[in-house]
Design brief:
Elements (H helix, E strand, L loop, with lengths): L3 H52 L5 H27 L13 H9 L17 H22 L6 H23 L4 H5 L7 H19 L6 E2 L2 E2 L7 H20 L7 H30 L4 H15 L8 H24 L8 H19 L7 H29 L6 H6 L1 H6 L11
Length: about 425
């Protein structure tokens, strides 16, 4: 009997050690998945670059690529300087504004104090993974604006806009839901950012399109003049890159490697994208009387944007409906913008704003959670839209009245590559 007690204690200790090892293994798995998701979201910037370059004119290729390269650079830096701490301030009571100065000091000057233990984020990831994943989301919002106002916006004006929009506007709006602010307390739901990322970027794009104005020769005598893109294959590659990245965008938003929920979210995401492609294909054929590849591509993106708000709380059948409607909406939205003479080079407003709003409202219609209501979703969309559009409009308006936001007519006609960058994107040299 004298040996029973120590053996029992030893068994308890071994069980505790085993539990700790299992917990640590789950923590590591969760964090690895989150870092992989971060990489997938990062690669979406290459997708945006491909889409914008493919749909843009060849004479502006380098300019477009320059913008799409520097956007994540500025986005990550501005998010590190202020955005991250503005977005997750740790509201004592749900509100509209707070700033975590202690977090800022820890990030820059005492990183050893950062919480990288299993206690952070319920064992889903570390503090540093948290920052990087959210930083990639932030940069995406600015990239949406880039595509809408391409081929005539001043690079300097766009860069200044990006700093303010990503560093302040986007994280402030995001804090209202994801940071535990007033919208979260209201019951507003946006799983991965149909509104907080996509429609916020879309509202910024709309403000830019209005103030920058259409490209020269886009609208003539009441007719819309097509401006042929530089590379249709590149646009297709870009869309597939974005679709791939969306597995990290939505799958990573589970905030862990939960096998049941991650796999379910990836299924609804894929169904939404596929149904969106069908919607764009059918509506494009009905409106333009042709098999419009561009509309099918934007239909895929529309379906992805639409499904993003509720990918974890809808059924697969609902995902198909949401994606299909988004694919149809993106076509008619593009037609409406042209009627209003709002020149959007890549259809960013239609994809991200129109379908971002639809996807967020769809949560109130199709969610399996009875606490998600249409009225709450509509209220959240309206608040975020008013804030995003007014801030973007003010930023662009001030820039327009000071440094100017549009290149000269001569530069626009001959192309921005030669004037601003000194090289062309497509150059064929023959040996003499």
């Amino acid at each position: 009997m004298k040996y029973f007690v120590p053996l029992f204690a030893q068994d308890v200790g071994a069980t505790a050690d085993l539990s700790a090892e299992i917990a640590q293994g789950l923590f590591t798995t969760n964090n690895v998945w989150m870092m992989l998701s971060t990489a997938l979201v990062f690669i979406m910037h290459l997708g945006f670059a491909g889409v914008e370059t493919g749909f843009g004119q060849a004479k502006n290729t380098v300019n477009i690529l320059f913008k799409n390269t520097i956007t994540p650079i500025l986005g990550i830096l501005s998010y590190a300087v202020v955005g991250f701490f503005l977005m997750y301030p740790g509201f004592e009571t749900p509100g509209w504004f707070a700033f975590d100065l202690s977090g800022w000091k820890m990030f820059w000057f005492s990183p050893a104090d950062a919480d990288v233990s299993i206690g952070y984020a319920d064992g889903g990831f570390t503090y540093w993974t948290d920052f990087l994943f959210q930083g990639m989301f932030a940069a995406t919002a600015a990239t949406i604006v880039s595509g809408a106002i391409a081929e005539r916006v001043k690079l300097s004006a766009y860069l200044i806009f990006t700093l303010f929009f990503v560093g302040i506007v986007y994280p402030l709006i995001g804090s209202w839901k994801w940071g535990g602010g007033a919208l979260d307390a209201m019951g507003f739901y946006d799983f991965a950012g149909s509104t907080l990322v996509h429609s916020v970027g879309g509202w910024g794009a709309l403000a830019g399109v209005i103030l920058v104005g259409p490209r020269i020769g886009k609208y003539v005598n009441g007719k819309t003049v097509d401006k042929p893109g530089a590379s249709v294959p590149l646009a297709v590659i870009g869309v597939f890159m974005l679709w791939l990245g969306w597995f990290g965008f939505n799958g990573g938003s589970v905030l862990s490697a939960d096998p049941a929920l991650v796999s379910f979210v990836l299924v609804t995401t894929s169904l939404g994208a596929s149904a969106g492609g069908i919607g764009g294909f059918l509506a494009g054929n009905l409106v333009f009387k042709r098999l419009d590849l561009g509309m099918m591509l934007n239909g895929v993106l529309a379906g992805l944007v639409g499904i993003t708000a509720g990918a974890d709380v809808i059924t697969p059948a609902s995902a198909v409906i949401i994606g299909l409607v988004a694919g149809v909406l993106v076509v008619y939205s593009a037609v409406l913008l042209d009627k209003l003479k709002l020149d959007d080079v890549v259809g960013a407003v239609s994809v991200h704003l129109t379908c971002g709003v639809w996807g967020t409202l769809a949560v109130g219609i199709f969610s399996t959670n009875p606490e998600h209501t249409f009225l709450t979703q509509l209220t959240g969309v309206a608040i975020c839209g008013a804030m995003a559009f007014s801030c973007a409009f003010i930023i662009f308006f001030v820039l327009k009245k000071t440094i100017g936001i549009r290149v000269s007519e001569a530069h626009e006609k001959s192309g921005l590559d030669s004037h601003e960058h000194g090289i062309r994107g497509y150059t064929i040299v023959y040996d003499e």
